[in-house]
Amino acid sequence: MNFTEKEHLFHQELERLLPGIVIRSVRAGNEKEVNHCHYCILPEIANISKSQYYYKKIPLEFIHFSSLHAVRSIISSKKLRLYNLYNLNDPREYSFAGDLLTFNADNREDAKKNMFLLSMCMTEILTMHTQYEFNMWRLYGGNGTGVAIQLDFSKNPLTAWKHYYLSQVFYGGNSRTNLMELNALLVKYQNEKPSMTIDLGQIVAFHKSNLYKLEKEVRLLFDNRQKRVHGPTVYSDYRGQLSPLLSKDIPKSHDLGKDIFYLELPIFSREFEVISEQIPVPRIKKLILGYAYGRDYKDTALTLQELCSNQLGYDVPVEQTRLAKYYNER
Pfam families under this entry (predicted)? Predict the structure, then answer.
């Protein structure tokens, strides 16, 4: 089937509005005409490697703020948890950009249930004005009683990842201008053949309101949506399924009244076995204790160092945030 004038126009607009992203189309019709075109991004991260949604800075190191209890659990289990979008603090986050496109209710719920996130921030937050770091400790680090994990993602090459995406977050209405133009184009030509739909689920999750701009967020996204052209990849061997390992968080599901699931992502350790280069492998490079630790700082640091050595098989330095000197001022 030859490409229609509408398809040629749409291809040109996609290249203009979404530079650096390889978008493919699936066409339906007969010998005489095309009835429908569905556009999508294939699951290999290489398809967005020339766009703004591909993290290009080196090294691939980021900060994840958490509680002391959660960090101990991460080290002991040798796994990070990525939660689905139902677990977001602001339930409107995905809608900020996702609702601009022609997702129906089923597509939207599929994304919220089967896309998984790990929220991090750039390491520069530790050297910028103290208000940025303080904001993160206050919101996500237990008001200074938690721990920040510095994660290194250089083990498996970013270019080889599949179904996993790594990008900084883009804030504010201006960041989604091109998505708005694309939506307007779909609406403008919706009554002309062929009908068109587009799935940009992998990138709309990297847009948020300006209210969150201080966070300097970087997101690791795992796309396990079921209602898409290219379904999930399952890795198995004689022992059974190795990846993805998904579990339901029953307490959170009960409290929020939604199906809260999480993905367990193995972290690098002495006994680590590579499943596939297509799966990211985070390594714990450093632990940073919050500003509220007092005299017990050294004891807590020593306990975490011993836990890392015993469970992960390598030494992880532990230090206290620079904010402690301000918190303990007399």
Answer: DUF2971
188 found inside a domain:
no
Would 27 be classed as within a structural domain?
no
Give the residue from 321, 314, 320 showing the smallest Cα distance to 152. Answer: 314
Token pair for 20: 């650096």
pLDDT digits (tens, 9 = 90+) for 205-256: 899 888 888 889 999 999 999 988 888 899 998 889 999 999 999 999 999 8
Query: In the block, which residue shows the tokens 């030494």?
Result: 315
Structural domain boundaries, residue 85: 53-92+108-172+203-327
* 292-321 per-position pLDDT tens digit: 998 889 999 999 999 999 999 999 999 999
Residue 278 to residue 115: CA distance in whole angstroms: 17
Compute the distance between CA of residue 306 and CA of residue 173 in angstroms, rounded to an integer. Answer: 46
Q: How many helices (H) and strands (E) does the chain have?
A: 10, 17
Cα distance between residue 57 and residue 61, in whole Å: 9
Name 232's Cβ contacts closer than 8 Å, sequence gap at least 6.
163, 224, 225, 226, 244
**Burial 216-248, CB ≥16 within 10 A → b, else e:** bbbbbbbbbbeebebebeeeeeeeeeebbebee
Tell me if 259 is assigned to some domain.
yes
Residue 226 lies in a domain: yes
Residue carrying the six token digits 């694309």: 182
- Measured CA to CA in angstroms, residue 163 lies from 46, 63, 198, 231 at distances of 11, 22, 18, 10
Q: How far apart are CA 55 and CA 218, in angstroms?
A: 9
